[in-house]
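Hi R.,

Here are the chain sequences for the assembly we discussed:
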Amino acid sequence: MKSVYDTIQDEIKALKAKREAVILAHNYQPGEIQDIADFVGDSLKLAQEARKTDAKVILFCGVHFMAETASILCPDKTVLVPDLQAGCSLADMVLPSDIRKWKAAHPEGVVVCYVNTSAAVKAECDYCCTSSNAEKVVSAIPAGKKILFVPDYFLGSFVKQKTGRADMELWKGYCPTHVMIQANRIEQLKKEHPEAEFVMHPECGCTTKSMHLADRVLSTEGMVRYVKESSAREFIVATETGILHRMQLDNPEKRFIPASEQAVCGYMKMNTLEKMADALENMRNEVRVPEDLARRASRCIERMMEIV
Ligand code: CIZ
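And here is the predicted structure of the full complex:
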């Protein structure tokens, strides 16, 4: 039987061929967008795919900073997004002027920025990282060097603990979606599903309180891999709920329980099939990072790519 999305998905496929486009979708995108994408993944995997593609146009279904990264890595491509307003509250919690002030207060330090930052912030930073490689990036920085980590406090705390880097200062930003995931609800779910494995994202505000309950603290791509390889049949998943679509498709015989039904990113869900078709049809909503800014922002991204 035809789904309600079939007609528009067929239209997008035709437009994709006409524009010689590739569609990249983040793990948190609505299921119907993931279903039509050429690649679904975390920001690192999608950045790597953007770099490899021969397509002329990249339709990036995620949030703004991700499309900026694709534009920085692929200046010869046209990067489009379904909705230019799809931003990131966490990325908005630090400005380039904040980084300059912080560096001036700690001139001996190096700045590590989470990928959830604007290109303008990345241009002020020394290293970029994602949740899948933050530990590796921080560990690659010579011991004894002071590290200023922006903007996610919880990811920073997790990495600080894992690497034992006492000389690490943390910006106090947070992801409002991951903050919806509460420690007491996780305890309750663990009691209700004693056989379930519990996988948790390091952006969760309750990471410190709930970490002792977690089988693994992982990035989205790490979670996707882990639940596939594990012999468990049930999983409690503490991250944005969009990821459950991919997990369920990959593992139809397993059960996935969101740690919070409220962990839904409003920005990620601004993208729709209709907006994708409109962007491709009218070549609308281009994200292009100006050349000078792209050159400065690419330094910390390239450093990360060399480490991982
Ligand atoms: O790197 C990403 O895509 C984000 C924002 C989270 C994750 O763990 O994949």
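The longest helix spans residues 291-307. The chain has a mean pLDDT of 95.

Let me know if anything looks off.

Best,
T.
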